[in-house]
Amino acid sequence: MDLxxxxxxxxxxxSKGLGAAIAITLAMKGVHVYGIGRKKDSLKEVAIQAGxxxxxxxxxxxxxTAIHDxxxxxxxxxxxxxxxxxxAGIGFFSKVDETPTSNWLExxxxxxxxxxxxxxxxxxxxxxxxxxxxxxxxxxxLGKVGRTESTGYCATKFGIQGFSEALFMELRGFNIKVTCIxxxxxxxxFFKTSGQHSHHNMLQPFDIANTIIHLLETPDNMLINEMTxxxxxxxxxxx
Length: 239
What we know:
- By secondary structure, the protein is an alpha/beta fold.
- 40% of the residues lie in helices and 16% in strands.
- Helix 3 runs parallel beside helix 4.
- It starts with 7 loop residues before the first strand and ends in a 10-residue tail after the last strand.
C-alpha cells in the first residue's frame, strides 16, 4: 500500500500509549487519521503532535449505535477508510476467583465486542473498494501463551487471535489484508491497573508504530498475517 496516496485510517484507543503513537506516525506519513478514544483532552494532545492529518473522535467503542452513527455521518461511498487499527484494549489482572464480574465484562466488551463493532461497521465499504485495504488487530503475547492472574485478559486476546485468522480467510478474496500483532510488554500506562510499573526495557510504542508502517507498505499481494514482538531483555534495568 502506498501511504502517500490519500489513504484514510481509523485507529481505536488513540488517546494515549500505543494507539497515540500509531496515530501520530500514520499522520506524519501523510495518512488522514481518525483517532477514536474516550478521553477528549488526551485526544487533543495527540492532535497537537499529529498535526492537520489527525481528527480526534471522542467515542466509546462499546457503544455499537454510536459507532454506526459516527461512521454513517462521516464517510461517503467514495471516501471510506483504507486502514483499520483495532488497538483499544484494557486489562485487569487477578486470580480468577478474585476477579470482579465487572472487570471481566469490561475486558470482553472492549477487547472483543468493540473490535467486532468497529470492524463489522467498516468492512462492507472496504469490500467495495478497488484498492487494497488492511485491518491490523493489536493482540498480545498473552493471546499466544497463558499466564497466571491473567485469565480474562488471556481469554480476550486468544479470542482476537482466532478472530483475526478467521477474518483473514473471509476477506482475502476482497483484497483486504488482516494482520494480528502480538506484542509483549510495552512502556505505557497500561500496567497501572495491575500495580506494575513500566520501564525502558519494555517495547517502545513508536518502534511498534513504525513496524506497523512497514506492514502497511508491503506489496498488495504480500501479507504478514501474524507477528509476535517481544522485548529482547524485558526485565527492569538493574534488576
